Structure formats: C-alpha cells, structure tokens
User: What shape does this take?
Amino acid sequence: MFARKVLSVLTSQIAFYILAVSSGIILARSLGRDIKGQYDLIFALNQFIALLCNLGLGAATIYLLNRNPEKKSEIAATGFWMQIVITLVMVIFFILFNQAVSRFILDDKVPTNVLLLGLCLVPISSLLNIQSLIFLGIGQVGKYNFIRVLPPFFIITFVLIFVVWLQMGVTGALISFGLSSLVVASLGMFWVRQNGIKLRALNLSAWKKPMFSYGLKSWLGNLLQFFNYRLDVFIINFFFNPGQVALYHLGVALSEIIWHIPNAVAAINFPKTAANWDEAKSFTPFLARTTGYISLFLSSGLILLGFPFIYLAYGTDFIGAYPALLSLLPGTIFMAVGKVVASDLAGRGKPHYGTLSAFISLILTILLDLLLIPRIGVVGAGIASSASYIMSALVLILLYVRLTSTPIHLLLFDKSDLPIYLQKFQAMLKAAQPLLVKFHLGKTT
Assistant: This one.
C-alpha cells in the first residue's frame, strides 16, 4: 500500500513536471529571457508570501488529522479558515506597501502593475495548497495528486491564449496562472464536500492552539528553508538583472527533477510516521537509502542530457543555465536524503528539528551568496545553494540518529538492500512478461 501511494504521488509529480516544463518552454520562447525573468521573480515572491502566510497550518492539519481521524471536519475547517484569513490580511498588507516591496525586494526591476497582479494571485495559491494537504491528511492521495497536476495542464491552455495568441506578455502569463488555479480550486471545493468534510466554522477554538503549537514549529523551518532555496534568486536580480534570474531559475528547475522522488516519499512517509512511530524506525532508513541511490542515478542523467535539452528546448539564450545546473547537483543529491529524514522527524512531532537545520544552512547560504554571486554569477549561486543543501541534510541526519538511536550508516548504505532490490526487479520483470509476450505476438501477426 505504501509503495502504491508513493508511486501514485510520484506519477503525479512527474506529470506536473512535464506540464510545468512545457509551459516554461512556451513562456521562454514567447517572452524572451528578460521578461521570463520578471515572471520568475514574481513567482518566487508569491511562493515567499504564501509560505509567510502558511504558519505551518498545512503540516499541522496533516499531523492532527492522522492523530485524530474522528475529528476530520473540525480539524480541516480550522486549518482551512485560519489559512484563508491570514493570507488575505497578509496580501492586503503587501499591496498597501507595494512600492517598498518593489524597491527593496525586486530592486525596481518589475513593473508595478505586474507586481500588483502577482500579489492578487497569492490567495488562490494558498487555497489550492490547503485543499491538497487536507486530502493528503485524510488519505485521499488521488485527490491530492489531481490538485497538484491539473493547474499546469490548464496553464498551458491559457498561456497559448493569453501569451502566444493575444501576446499579453508577462501579464498574460500571470493571468494564465491565476485562471488555472481558480478552476482547480473550484473543483477542489467540490471534492472536499464530496468527502464528507464540512468547512463550516465548527468548534474552531478547540483546535487553534494545537494547530498553532505544531504549525509554528514547522513553519519557521519551512520559511528558513525557502530562503535556502530561493534567496539567491533575489540576490542575482540585485547584482545583475532578470535575465540572469531566468537562467538560474531554469538550472534550479532542472536540478529539482531529482527531488520528485523524495518529495513523493516524504509526502506519504510523514502521515505514516505520525500514525506509527515504531514501524517508521526501521522503514525510514530504507527509504532514505533507496532515495539516495535513485537521486545519484538521476543526477548522472542530468549531467549527460542537460546541455542538449536546454539547447533544443529553450534555445541559445538559455545555455547559461547548464553551468548553474551542474553546480547545484551535489547538494540536490544530499538534500534528497534529507527530505525523507525530515518527513520522519515531522511525523514524530519534531518539526523544529527541520527549523534548526534550515537556520544553520541559511547562515551558510547568505555568506556564500554574498561572496560568490557578485564574482561568478549564477554558478556562484549554485555552489552556495549546493553547500547549503549538504549542510541541511547532514544536520537532519545527525538529529535523526540522535533521536532514534539509528546507526548513521543505515541512512546511507546497507548491503542487505541488494537482495531486496533484486527481488523487486525480478518481480517487475515477471509482472511485465505477459505484456511483453502480447506485444511480441502483436508485432509478428
């Protein structure tokens, strides 16, 4: 059952990535490097604001739903309404002070009308996020997958209309993002009701304290981790221009192909660990090792295929993304293991361990960003992020080892895995054999 859920989430993430990359290629070809960089800046700012408003409520909702499944409507409604109200208040604040945001965060390199439109899209993104996490918390993995996959599918349609056909530039790109999110959010509300969850404000006061108690511990870590992931985007924009942001953003997007597997594993391992701490003690190390092996293999593919893919799909203007991609890969591999370990720690009620690792690595990120980006540009940003990812993963691993008394080598390598992998591979071949025979017979006839 666990493997099936992971495979389901992974399939949805791969579909999401293919659709997102497809829309990104269309935008890059239609907008050009500099305007695409403006879109990337707004997208990064929206992610930051959405995370700022999150306060860990999504993670708290998943945790509490698995610890108290009989109270699913009360918990889901509490997380939902707290998220919506906080987001609206925060967005109004940012709109009122949009000139300060433009000057001090975007370095006055994005038009004001584009910034304001981008800010208006944040509540829709937050609505989608809390919906998807409610479904994950109640075990509706299929609905969780649909909420994640459908937006980029609709984005491609709207991008073709507003960007390619009507030639509305970055404004059209943002309108496409907003409309696609709104369509899926409407569908999500229907599914929520279909699953018997009533989002009326019932007994919210009973769950506010535990929601905040758990959420704030994970929120600060997620906020710090966001800066580890995206701070360099704003620093590149400060020292250079949106065109360089577009290059780096592409390098990051390609390197994060590796993270689709650990993200899928972590998404399922978190509620599983929350439901049964003892079982997770033997299961998480195996997941971490396996994820590390697969990530190492995928990184080899990116090294070989990254350059020709960028050249053919995005054009010569984006070739500079390849060096950034290479500089990011070492840290991306380490962080793949760290993500699995972090999901276990969060499931044990220790999300603040992730906060500690994120804080330590953020200090390293800032120091290296300021040292390297002015000197070697996007490659410097990649090196800084890679070092930060490695530091974060190592801290998480050490904290996990201390908490669970698990030998550290079990998170990295265990020779007993080889027979298991061989057995799984043989089972896959056996299951595929009838299909291969049918295909062969079809060709011969």
Q: What stands out?
A: Residues 2-433 form one domain. The mean pLDDT is 86. The first helix runs from residue 2 to 31. The CA atoms of residues 285 and 410 lie 6 Å apart.
